[in-house]
Amino acid sequence: xxxxxxxxHFPDRAAALAMGAALAGGERVEQLAPExxxxxxxxxxxxxxxxxxxxxxxxxxxxxxYEALAGYYVNMxxxxxxxxxPDAIDAFRIYPxxxxxxxxGRAS
Length: 108
Hints:
Elements: E1 4-10, H1 13-23, E2 35-38, E3 41-49, E4 52-58, E5 64-68, E6 72-79, H2 87-90, E7 93-94, E8 102-103, E9 106-107
Antiparallel strand pairs: 1-6, 1-7, 2-3, 3-6, 4-5, 8-9
């Protein structure tokens, strides 16, 4: 089975849920489904949310301080040709050099 790691960056959670609604056939969704089938293609999704990166500074006890990255992040595995990725997803696709998360044994 073909498996393509897809990394998505939305301006906010509402935009991510709108993409989830498109995958669900237009139904309003309250949370992103962890998996499903769209137009015959199986997919899995990991609702990451906010990502944080170290600032390089430490707090009073020596623990690293982090800052939130702007936006809302979702990782997915699209089990079909990338060319069949819906526009509602492709519009938010990013191409990170170093993914922050691992999904199903693959870097995400």
